[in-house]
Write a structure and sequence with these properties.
611 residues; alpha/beta; four-stranded antiparallel β-sheet; 21 helices; elongated
Length: 611
């Protein structure tokens, strides 16, 4: 756990360094819109059309006010023939209704097209993230918490999806509104327009400073969210261990610290950004008061129509509100870019070594495996395996034994190309595995590990995972070979019994039998087995051992052995220490040497006898 945290901290600092490229991230994010650029152009045109129509409406509405005001004043002054032209007012009202309907239609259509295009864009981004996962080396998952990965592919992508759709619509609408309203204001009174525009530099300057200050906190908010999600996922999956060792309070304290970091970043980001609108409105209100005063003076002295003053005041609100919206959009965009930086950081992770340009594929697999002068280290300066040479013939069972950290699991990781050798080669039937596609290579192998993996679904579905096109009868036959059929039939729903998410509604031994049945169904030429009988009762252990014998029959097998009594009949036993083979042979020859294996075997035998 601690190593994961250390790695995670290093990754966060690296992400902060790359997160400073605000312009580059923005450009890359909008690059995803290129596929649907015509839809977005249509959206922009529709928004512009709808906004311009909405901007024209107040001036037309003002003409109604002017007609009513002038008619009323003329009648009060006793002007002969004075009247309010209701027929003209009706014509103008009908024109206004048509304008509002067309504007609403444009806005609705733009929203529909934008929603469709933006969701397709986010679909492509999620697809890229999903395609990236299988290309990442095992080293990445070893050094990054699962919660942080999940946060990047869910929380961060959702943040982009939600805010980006709103931002595009609001931004185009706001910019178009500001421009069209400014034109309409100029058509009414250039002097009043000048007063209104004088407030704009103060608004932009304030907005720029707020955006600059809040950016680092939005970035910190997304990173804190990733760390918190990772810790929650880690503690939840290991809650039994936490309770056994009475570390509940320690976990709570650590969560409180992570939660506090998230809180601090979040409230600072939201507080700094939240003061934007009140200040923008305050500046706008100052301009509003000045326009009201000067508009009254102009109406009294230069004959500016009352309806135009009314329209101008409406335009003032329409002019300041979009500026505030733009400020809000910039605030929202900080969160979007912070999330995008984390997603792109994930997409830019170093991938596995590319596949061979001319991959080889084995049509008929015998199961010969050869390690030829293999050297490997998880870090270049710390070589674990110095010079490994193994020659395994088809049908042989090879047991790998040794103390913890000797390199047993490493050999399996190299065999499956989860890691690539530093030097030397690994060959299957004479073909270097680096010349094969990873998919073809891994299809040769079947695995039964200590950590059983079953998913939420029926028992039938879990076994069929080994061969998706298998018939029900083939699944049941595999279960019989794995000695799982008898316990499955005792369950209320039999093969249709649903396993819950953690598959804890069946025992550990039963789960292991199901994984063996799955491996039998896949029928691979080479098997990798990690003995998993340490946490089951004696009867189940015997069933698992017998099931493994059925599974291993007629195949090449690599067995990571923990209980040496179970590998006495292996064709070859490799004794590893510090990454090197120090002894090799069958059980009898190794016991006759009275070496490391001899001492290791006798110590286990003595322990079992003592127990």
């Amino acid at each position: 756990m601690s190593s994961h945290k250390m790695h995670g901290a290093g990754r966060v600092s690296a992400a902060v360094e790359r997160a400073n490229d605000f312009k580059g991230t923005t450009k890359r994010l909008f690059g995803y819109f290129k596929t649907y650029k015509f839809q977005f152009i249509l959206v922009i045109l529709l928004i512009i059309a709808g906004t311009i129509l909405s901007a024209v409406a107040p001036k037309i509405l003002g003409s109604i006010t002017t007609l009513v005001f002038n008619g009323s004043v003329a009648k009060l002054q006793g002007v002969p023939g004075a009247f309010i032209d209701f027929e003209q007012i009706l014509v103008i009202a009908v024109r206004l209704i048509i304008i509002y309907l067309v504007s609403a239609a444009c806005t609705y259509t733009a929203g529909f097209v934008l929603s469709n295009a933006s969701q397709k864009t986010m679909y492509n981004l999620r697809r890229d993230v999903d395609n990236k996962i299988p290309k990442l080396p095992l080293r990445y998952f070893d050094s990054t918490t699962h919660g942080d990965i999940l946060s990047r592919v869910t929380n961060d992508v959702d943040t982009i999806s939600t805010s980006l759709q709103q931002s595009v619509n609001q931004f185009v609408t706001s910019i178009t509104t500001v421009i069209s309203v400014a034109v309409m204001m100029l058509s009414i009174s250039p002097l009043l327009t000048l007063i209104a525009i004088l407030t704009l530099p103060f608004t932009l300057l304030f907005t720029k400073n707020v955006v600059k200050r809040s950016q680092k906190y939005f970035r910190g908010q997304q990173q804190s969210l990733g760390r918190t999600s990772g810790y929650i996922e880690e503690m939840y999956t290991g809650h039994n261990v936490v309770r056994v060792f009475n570390h509940e309070q320690t976990c709570i304290d650590q969560f409180e610290q992570l939660n506090e970091d998230l809180y601090q970043n979040s409230w600072k980001a939201q507080f700094i950004s939240s003061i934007m609108m009140p200040i923008v409105n305050f500046i706008g209100n100052i301009g509003y008061v000045l326009v009201c005063v000067l508009g009254g003076i102009l109406a009294a002295t230069s004959g500016l129509a009352v309806g135009n003053i009314q329209a101008f005041l409406q335009y003032m609100r329409q002019f300041t509100n979009p500026i505030g919206q733009i400020a809000n959009i910039m605030n929202m965009f900080q969160s979007t870019i912070a999330a995008a930086e984390r997603v792109f950081d994930f997409l830019d992770e170093t991938e596995e070594i590319p596949e061979s340009e001319k991959p080889k594929k084995l049509d008929h697999i015998e199961g010969n495996v050869q390690f030829d002068h293999v050297q490997f280290g998880y870090r270049p300066d710390r070589i674990l395996i110095h010079d490994l040479n193994i020659d395994v013939h088809a049908g042989q069972t090879v047991a790998i034994v040794g103390p913890t950290g000797a390199g047993k699991t490493t050999i399996i990781n190299l065999l499956l190309r989860f890691y690539d050798v530093n030097s030397g080669s690994i060959k299957v039937d004479g073909v270097d595995i680096r010349d094969m596609r990873r998919e073809d290579l891994r299809s040769i192998f079947g695995m039964v590990l200590q950590d059983t993996w079953l998913f939420g679904g029926t028992i039938m579905e879990n076994i069929r995972y080994g061969k998706l096109n298998a018939t029900d009868e083939e699944v049941k036959q595999a279960a019989k070979s794995a000695f799982a059929d008898s316990f499955i039939k005792t369950l209320p729903e039999g093969y249709d019994t649903m396993l819950n998410e953690e598959a804890n509604n069946i025992s550990q031994g039963q789960k292991q039998l199901l994984t063996i049945a799955r491996a039998i169904l896949s029928d691979p030429p080479i098997m990798i087995l990690d003995e998993a009988t340490s946490s089951v009762d004696t009867r189940t252990e015997l069933l698992i051992q017998q099931a493994m014998k059925n599974l291993m029959h007629g195949r090449t097998n690599f067995v990571i052995a923990h209980r040496l009594s179970t590998i006495r009949h292996a064709d070859m036993i490799l004794v590893l220490k510090d990454g090197d083979i120090i002894e090799m042979g069958n059980h009898d020859s190794l016991m006759a040497q009275h070496g490391f294996y001899y001492n290791l075997y006798n110590s286990q035998f003595a322990s079992s006898q003592g127990a």
